[in-house]
Amino acid sequence: MAELQSAPLNWEASATTTHPQVSSTLPPEVAACLRNARFLHLATCTNLFPHISLMNYTYLPSTPFSPHPTIIMTTNPSSKKTLNLISNPRVSLLVHDWVSHRPPTRNPDPAREGSPPPQATRSSLASLLLNINTSALSSISTTINGVAQLVDSGSEEERWCKEKHLENNTFGDQAREERGFFGQVQNASASEGDGGTSCFIEGEEVRVVLVRVKEGRIADWKGGVKDWTIISEDEERDRGRHGMVNGSI
Known about the structure:
Blueprint: E1 21-23, H1 28-36, E2 39-46, E3 49-56, E4 58-60, E5 70-75, H2 80-87, E6 90-96, H3 124-130, E7 140-150, H4 156-168, H5 173-181, E8 207-220, E9 225-230, H6 233-241
Parallel strand pairs: 1-9
Antiparallel strand pairs: 2-3, 2-6, 4-5, 5-8, 6-7, 7-8, 8-9
């Protein structure tokens, strides 16, 4: 446990492709991370100016419209990220399975306020959540590169994606319980059955964004990295006939 509380002093060289793996499916740890995380960070770029957004999302191994691993998000049509996607559909995503709250440092800073707020320390469950970063539960983060597509408005694919996205981001009682642990949200309605997410998914003006996953990188908390690439099943079969082993290059 003492080892877990010390930051690593050395990182694996990772400027080039490291421990590459090639497969028609996502690495199991990446798929698990996408199934379990609540948010991801979406990076878009246009005219050499990057932009990052925190997003609700839905991960699906495939859809009726595509056999490839797909990530569904929704966006306001006039937002900066939407305009960036129209100009440049190449995106990068970051998702991780550890708690982002910063634990106490060796020399505590009295000027730094914690997040969640002090009210959270009154709950034993919240205290457990606050301390989870010091446990062995922390695992990986993964960067995912892909190509984004704005689904045609009014299409059957858009309707299907919104329905799946709403199902995956309707939290109900869980969202209200979290507000109780971490302080009451101002003007929050107790009758919100979806955690306040439906307005960002169901509105007529809301656009559906699909990201087809191409490749990525897994990093663990010790600084170890592993690169991976998604190929079609036909390409994977061709690689097998040429003697490739375990999807490695």
